[in-house]
Structures are given as C-alpha cells and as structure tokens.
Amino acid sequence: MGDPGYFIATLEGTQHLITALVYIIRNVVHHGIAATPFSYPYSSANAYFREELGKNHVPDLLLSPAQIRKVLPRRAMYDPSWKMGVEGVFLRESVLEVALVENLFATPQAFNYLLSRKSAADWYKEQEKDGNGVPPITLEDMEKAVIQFAPSREKTITEMLQNEKARFGRNGMTDLELCKLIDTEYVPKYSAQSVYQLSGKTKTAIANDLYRRFHSSVYQISRCLAI
C-alpha cells in the first residue's frame, strides 16, 4: 500500500489477543467511519456469533466456482471452499478464523460488551493477568502507521477515543467518503492510479482544495492523502 516498513506486535496470552482483536475490529469506529463495528457492512464483527446474535443469514446471490475463476486472475490461489458474493468479494467467513475468535471471547454477551466499552486503563491491568511480562497492547500500538504521519500524535489519539463515543461529525464526511472522493475525483485528474503516486506538491494542492470545499479537518485530510 506504499507504507514504509511493516507493523508487528508481540501477542502472548489470552488478554493480549482479545485486546488486539477488539482494537482491530473497532478500527472503523476509531476512524469515524461508523458509530459501531456492526453498522459497517465490511466489518468482521458481523461474522462472529452469527447465530446467537441473529445474523445467521447467508447472502443468496453467490458466484459459482466457474464464475469465481473468471473474476480472479488466472494464477490466483485460493481455497476452493471459499464463497464469493456477486460483488466479487469473498465472504468474510471464508477467510476468518471464526472458531478461534469465538473461543477467545467465549460468549456473545462478552463479545458485545468488549466491542462497545470505552478504552481505559483497566485494559492494561487485565493484560497483566496473562503474567508473561509483555507490555500491554494499546490503541497507540495498533495505530502506529497512522500516528507516524499525523501532525499531532496526541490530537490524533484524542480524536480516535472521542469517536468511541460516536462523537465524530455525523454531518461531515467520513474517512471512507472522503477517500472515495479523492480516488474518483482528484487522483484521475492528475493522471494517477493511486493516491500513493501523487507528489507532495500535488497532495498539498488537493488538501487545500478539500479544506476549502468541505471544511474537513486537517487530520482527516492527512489520513486520506497519506501525508
């Protein structure tokens, strides 16, 4: 995706795993895309405890194995048991470790609770119960790539925590909407295929235009332009 290096974190123990999973599943909340993971159609949150949470519906419109082969590159490797919807995306259940995650959370009640509670210092104490001496996983750990390019680390984390309370601008554009606008309107204008192919000067010009037209925050524009 154009990001320098890669992200790696040591996860040792049940509480460390659960905390990391909660942060990952709630990524759309922290970035102001949705008020809850469940309301985002592409979130893996809707793949766990489906039967218990009344979400056991399987999409009726699926591609046949022959149709899937036509959608993917000729040499693409995938498990033939995977299912793909008509929009050309494999179902989450095909690639997620559903049983593993459900065993970690134990019950649908615990899953719902852990996805909806607010981040707090208690999470650090809970991870200490693993007794392995590994530092606790934090929101800042999971968002290193974003924070690295943010104008203000403290303000970025504060915004993400505020989004947990669904206090992001509902009347403004979400990250998803702004990124889609950039991809469809601005990137083609500069004869590029991706925001990562734009020069720093071009990104600055786009950022100024977005700020003038839509009054999006500097931090949101920076995220979507990968500045």
Helix content range of the residues, please?
Answer: 40-55%
Please provide the ordered H/E string of secondary-structure elements.
HHHHHHHHHHHHH
Number of alpha- plus pi-helical segments: 13
Report how far apart the termini are.
13 Å
Describe this structure in words.
With 227 residues, the protein is mainly α. The protein has 13 helices and no strands. Helix 1 (14-25) packs antiparallel against helix 7, helix 11 (175-189) packs across helix 13 and helix 12 packs across helix 13 (218-225). The chain is globular, with a radius of gyration of 20 Å. The model has no long low-confidence stretch (mean pLDDT 85).
Itemize the secondary structure elements and their pairings:
Blueprint: H1 14-25, H2 27-30, H3 65-71, H4 92-95, H5 98-105, H6 108-116, H7 122-128, H8 139-142, H9 144-149, H10 153-163, H11 175-189, H12 200-214, H13 218-225
Helix pairs in contact: 1-7, 11-13, 12-13
Sum this structure up briefly.
The protein is an all-alpha fold and 227 residues long.
Give structural attributes.
227 residues; mainly alpha
